[in-house]
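Notes from the 1:1 (GR / supervisor)

We went over the backlog. Supervisor wanted to see one worked example end to end before approving the batch request, so GR pasted a single chain during the call. The sequence is below; no edits were made to it. Supervisor asked that the structure be written out right there so they could see what the output format looks like.
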Amino acid sequence: GYTAGDLDSLSVDCVNGLMTKGYGIQDNFVDDRVVEDVFKELEMIDFEGRLSQVQQQKMIGYRTDKICWVNFEGLDREKQPGLLELFKKMISIPFELNKKCSLYLQASASFHLGCFPKDAYYKKHVDGGYETNLNNGRKVT
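Structure output shown during the call:
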């Protein structure tokens, strides 16, 4: 079972918004120190050349950011404490929503990191859905 911590990161307003509007906004999900650490760690990942432009044919014209997929188990706990803390909190989200909303979500330990250089863009688009041609399994992202 889940053992990474308490399941009280999402406010009532955030959960209510998710259930009634289809989205929820959680202010101050992580503290400023974590944000600063993550920024520095992403700069290092970019410096190491691990970020690359999206090459998927369907995404051309939708985004020009650089991305990297990172697995929770592959984090360097000494060099990436910010990402470690952020990922732990993100892994807890499905468990918290299952507890509060009975959504039966599953957690993933694989995370998509994005970097937006100057003049990069990301156009609003549907990532997944219930229609056969859009269903990639994602229901909460």
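Supervisor's comment: Helices lie at 12-21, 32-47, 81-101.
Batch request approved.
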